[in-house]
Amino acid sequence: MQITAAVLRHRGAALPYADSRPLTIETLELQPPGRDEVLVRIAAAGLCHSDLSVISGQRPRPLPMALGHEAAGVVESVGDGVTDLVAGDHVVMVFVPSCGHCVPCAGGRPALCEPGAVANGAGTLLAGDIRLTDADGAAVHHHLGCSAFASHAVVSRRSLVKIDRDLPLHEAALFGCAVLTGVGAVVNTAQVRAGQSVAVIGLGGVGLAAVLGALAAGAAQVIAVDLNPEKLALARALGATATVPSGPNAAAQVRSLSTGGCDVVLEMAGSIRALESAVAMTARGGTTVTAGLPPPDAALPVNIVSLVAEERVLKGSYIGTCVPSRDIPRLVSLYRAGRLPVDRLVSGYLTLGSINAAFDDLHAGSAVRQIIRFDA
After folding, report:
1. Of 11, 35, 178, 254, which sits most exposed with the smallest number of CB within 10 A?
2. pTM for the structure as a whole
3. Distance between CA 259 and CA 203 in Å, rounded?
């Protein structure tokens, strides 16, 4: 079948993207789902910094590639072997497919699925296939097994989590990345406990979701840190107990507010400077978690004596250390109970044709989560 999709053919385009137009809206040929695959009609897809890092070239991927990885939609058909989804089911996409059989998957850590990581790096679906071709018959790679900036996508069954049909799909899309990563980093990776103090550096969609997650987990103090005054104001409106502007004095301010440092500090900015600041904000015996993705060659100098003598913990968090099939329904339940108001992270809705200008807004920090709606 023919679909419409946003395709990246060259990385490193000049800003503003509204002028250079790195993403072209193209008609592609989408093959039917193969074994253990599903055809999904995309209803909504969110714009994320992970997409932006591919456009800029910070995280190289094989090109051409149909971008997009945070989305929700409706099952249209299933391939052989798929017995637990039917046409009409509503699903959220997950940007690391989990095979269920490798050592990490068997150990309950599907975010570290080894075949999933190989497929994502190669720009294929989990089984190693590519289902997209352009007008010349050339292959177009899949972004993180999803390629969700499109009217339809074929994905592995292992990239989908079924949700209730009465949850609006433009709200459900957020749970595939921003909520899963941000809240998961709080409750799964850091295991924040009631009464603890928490700081969050970097208030994009993931960072603000972490603020909400810390509040939902019962943190007594939640300090939000960012350069953007509007994002600091939003964090306060969401319930952050204090806000601190990023800068050379931020760590000292957080330590003063938290009487010597926070029990848990989460770095969501994808910056080595921000991560260094996060370590400096963390109390003795505390935990620093990073879910940001700086350039692949970035490195962090660590004071080993402090790490040992102060019993510090420094942890990475990918997809919030989540088990998506377990955690997405739980997070949706918290949202529907009013305890996780992630809909307030949405900056606005747009059409696929305005995607390049929307990435300018994301790059400038003037938007948190923008959602492309295909069902509007």
Report:
1. 35
2. 0.96
3. 23
